[in-house]
Model the fold of this input.
Amino acid sequence: MTLTIFRCGECGRGAFPEPLLCSRCGSDGFVTASVDRGVVEHTTRVVNPHHAVLATLLVAPEVRVVAALRNGAFAPGETVQVTSDPDVDGRVAYVPASSGSEVQEEERT
Amino acid sequence: MAAASIIAASETSYTRHPSPSETTHRVLARAVRDAITQSGLDHRQIDGFGVCSFTLEPDHAIDLAWRMGLKVRWLMQDTNGGASAGNLLQHAVHAIEAGAASAIVLVAGDRMDAAAFEKLVTRYNRATEEHLSPLPLTGPNALFAMLTTRQMEERGLEPADYGRIAVAQRSWAGLNPGAVYRQPLSLEEYFAAPMVADPLRRYDCVPSVTGANAVVVVADDRATGMPRARVLGVTSSFNRDDQGGNGLVTGVAESADAAWQSTGVAPSDIDVLSVYDDYPAMVVAQLNDLGVVHASDTSRFIRERVATRDYALNTSGGQLSAGQAGSAGGMHGLVEVVRQLRREAGDRQAAKARIGAVTGYGMVLYRYGSCGNVTVLEAAA
Ligand SMILES: [Zn+2]
Done:
């Protein structure tokens, strides 16, 4: 399961979490885009709980998300697989998804 | 030309462990009562009231006005946490200029015990609830850990620079009877303390306390002869970059540009300064944003001016040592600068205290704080 981000239908600017109006052009029309990878920018290991590793990921131009890195060491600059499925196994970056969105999935070409 | 002045500034005792009978409402009321008493005004002369608190639910500003017997013609509730003091003050000054009120009491505070803190940080806003709380983190420590790493890379700082800020503020706190942590802290102890989220250690993270702060703002012409802090300007910035940047430049930068422009005060004129200090990295960010020190000169400034306490920065000990009383975090620094300008700061009184500045910073929407403001004050009597 990939991560869903949002893209302005008018000017194409990306956003996460889901915006209401586009910060660049003011439009309220958005399409979703599936993202399956991101670039690790910074990480931190939180002692409590469980020495979990959190990261800032760049997933699209100007779109940064906060993720939990699972099952492995990840270095800044590294590209990682991104998922919003909390139960997926493997060496992934987990980004919790929105609880509900009415935006339509962008047509894949 | 200043239209409004702060003639009273109060802070309740701060505590890490509030008694079972303590409530947000009671602690706010004590701060209000102390500020009004200090102002010399009668309770019935207060005609404006503003409040910020994270834990008033289900009540609002009007409930507090009622329970405190305040009959007012100007009422405001602010929701912006660490930026609330500046925001409330900006609106209060405008209200006084417009004649909408003549004597306004502003208060901020919370009963912030473990349960209240947990609820606050997990349900801070919808983005936090949906996109951060499911992650293995509690509160904003991990976010500011990554911000600190970014700042070290960009500005050439090292962990000891942040440690020196925490140590210096603890030294100031030793001179403040109201600070919750007053015992001296050495740089060795700073480094020996447990890691919280690398590179943040225990003394980089602000301790939550229960407490409240309040100020009384009046038209300047009715305060003649009273030791007071004239409000020269309050400027604000909200959501400057949609949470999409690196968080190293805050809304304080834009606010500062506007403040220096409108007041004619320069950063080098500041005698006493309170910057919002939820983490030492934010002290650095705002010193740079204010123009007090250029980014490339930060490490030297910390060693030569901050660590030596030659520069009157966060003289209460700041929130890092005095404590963060929920949404009183922003007003704590304002109260301290007013005390300095009124020469009521006791053993920590700055020798020269004519111009004071205070920053507000807060509301971590997703990755870092989104609100910033700057208040410029001048001592008058
Ligand atoms: Zn757009």
